[in-house]
Description:
123 residues; alpha+beta; 4 helices
Amino acid sequence: MEQLKMYWLAGTPIKQYEFPEGYSVSNYKDESDKQAWYECCRNGLVTDGETEAFKKDIEAVADINPYEDVFFLDYEGEHIGTVTAFLQSKDNNGNMHMAAIREDFRGKGLAKYLAMIALNHLS
């Protein structure tokens, strides 16, 4: 998997998109959201045999506070995508991490909403 580095300059307007009907954003609220987070993130990234190692890897990012930094894109109340946006303590740079859309919702132009959510949080 490749990494993409993008820069947003403070003060640059962030394009705001209106969510299509049925779609909304929510925050990670409690431990019951953890499995949905894993499922959105791992979908297409790991095989079933790698699930436990994957869970440990995404929980190991020290600067992530799931209650503040993990967001879900929901369709009719169901988590169908996620993005994690957090500040790295070592250099105070924002990081958009684990942006993913569930496989059955891909190809609908939904990634722009994840980017908007992350940029709004980090700004």
